[in-house]
Backbone:
């Protein structure tokens, strides 16, 4: 049963003035400053310009290659458009959904063709020594950045593009997964790399959650979509990707008429949160009258309806599926819908250490829904109050401010962008901030 606490739904940055509207510090009407935490507000300049000027945020990135553990898409030098339509398939065992590959393959594309400071390190029995790495950096003529005022000593990061989402496929085919195959190089690189400057991507939280090497790779940072199964909050949370028909062209949805106050969608099946999505549907259908229910659409729908409904809705529940992570967040925001995140711990939300979620979303703890202990009368009261609170946000301008900021923040969820104002740029800033917080 659902118990929604009113104060948990109030975005803390929105402070109503006398006429019921919201006061905002507005340094630039579409500046990313509006959705960033104060600790990284100075990244707004690069984000706004889609540039990589700051060496602190955007250092040299060494992409470590070895045919034994490289993602197949690197070996094949496939272009991004082909990757979007590709599937890695083994007819006898498994078909890997392409949407689960988009995070990892997107980072490969980003560093291969779009990031100005990436360089390659070949791990073909080559010693990944500090001298070798220094020679590579010097050949890129990056050493002069040490003389730029306000720039730290050049400290490269090192990326292992291992495509962890296909580890089970690899185990069946090769008898070993890619993280194991890359472990020797990672362990050698740990001896010369600065703390937490090695990273790889784990695109799905159920991918080898108990991998023994994770206890050994103390100097490596994981970019992951979820902490439900394993991991550390010192890792970096990244969003789940969505296909380009949803996030490829914002303008397709820009002027959509909003006819739905609140949307809830997704398959009710869930390993970790059984009946959560069903409970939302039951509660709202039980406690709202017929007129109020016309404003709300909660329940599983045909896949092709999603992109239309996200663009036609004011608010969208982002409910956990098998794990906390879900592509609903990306699809909702790309469609211009204000997300209502439901999570056990808000630190699990993408880029939670750099994005101020109170400026573009509402948030609820899962326990408020799963473990409600109020009376039935209390449940009815909270659902009705929640409904009217959303209506009031639309009426008093709070919704307009949230939606405006959604149209800024969604760039950091959209893997089909390749400048700094993207999940890739946000990941680099998030890694920087994680290092600062640990220092």
Residues:
């Amino acid at each position: 049963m659902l118990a929604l606490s009113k104060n948990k739904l109030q975005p803390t940055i929105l402070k109503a003035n006398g006429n019921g509207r919201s006061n905002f510090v507005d340094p630039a009407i579409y500046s990313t400053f509006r959705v960033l935490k104060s600790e990284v507000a100075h990244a707004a300049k690069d984000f706004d310009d889609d540039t990589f000027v700051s060496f602190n945020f955007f250092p040299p990135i060494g992409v470590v290659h070895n045919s034994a553990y490289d993602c197949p898409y690197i070996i094949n030098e496939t272009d991004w458009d082909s990757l979007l339509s590709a599937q890695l398939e083994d007819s006898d065992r498994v078909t890997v959904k392409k949407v689960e590959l988009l995070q990892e393959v997107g980072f490969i594309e980003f560093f291969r063709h779009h990031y100005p400071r990436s360089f390659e390190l070949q791990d073909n029995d080559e010693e990944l020594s500090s001298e070798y790495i220094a020679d590579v950096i010097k050949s890129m003529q990056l050493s002069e950045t040490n003389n730029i005022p306000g720039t730290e000593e050049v400290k490269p990061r090192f990326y292992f593009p291992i495509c962890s989402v296909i580890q089970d496929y690899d185990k069946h085919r090769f008898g070993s997964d890619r993280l194991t195959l890359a472990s020797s190089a990672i362990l050698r690189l740990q001896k010369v790399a600065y703390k937490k400057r090695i990273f790889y991507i784990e695109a799905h939280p159920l991918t080898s959650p108990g991998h023994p090497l994770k206890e050994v790779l103390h100097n490596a940072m994981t970019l992951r979509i979820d902490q439900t199964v394993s991991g550390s909050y010192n890792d970096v949370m990244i969003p789940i990707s969505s296909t380009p028909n949803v996030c490829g062209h914002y303008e397709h949805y820009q002027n959509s008429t909003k006819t739905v106050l609140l949307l809830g969608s997704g398959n009710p099946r869930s390993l970790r949160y059984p009946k959560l999505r069903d409970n939302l549907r039951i509660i709202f259908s039980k406690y709202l009258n017929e007129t109020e229910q016309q404003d709300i659409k909660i329940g599983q729908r045909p896949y092709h309806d999603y992109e239309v409904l996200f663009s036609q809705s004011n608010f969208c529940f982002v409910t956990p599926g098998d794990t906390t992570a879900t592509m609903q967040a990306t699809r909702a925001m790309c469609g211009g819908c204000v997300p209502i995140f439901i999570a056990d711990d808000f630190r699990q939300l993408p880029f939670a250490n750099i994005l101020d979620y109170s400026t573009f979303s509402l948030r609820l703890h899962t326990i408020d829904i799963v473990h409600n202990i109020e009376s039935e009368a209390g449940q009815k009261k909270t659902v009705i109050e929640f409904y009217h609170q959303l209506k009031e946000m639309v009426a008093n301008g709070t919704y307009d401010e949230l939606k405006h900021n959604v149209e800024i923040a969604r760039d950091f969820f959209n893997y089909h962008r390749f400048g700094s104002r993207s999940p890739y740029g946000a990941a680099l800033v998030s890694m920087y901030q994680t290092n600062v917080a640990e220092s």
Remarks:
- Residues 1-26, 87-96, 143-152 have pLDDT under 50 and may be disordered.
- DSSP finds 16 helices and 15 strands in the chain.
- The two ends are 43 Å apart (CA to CA).
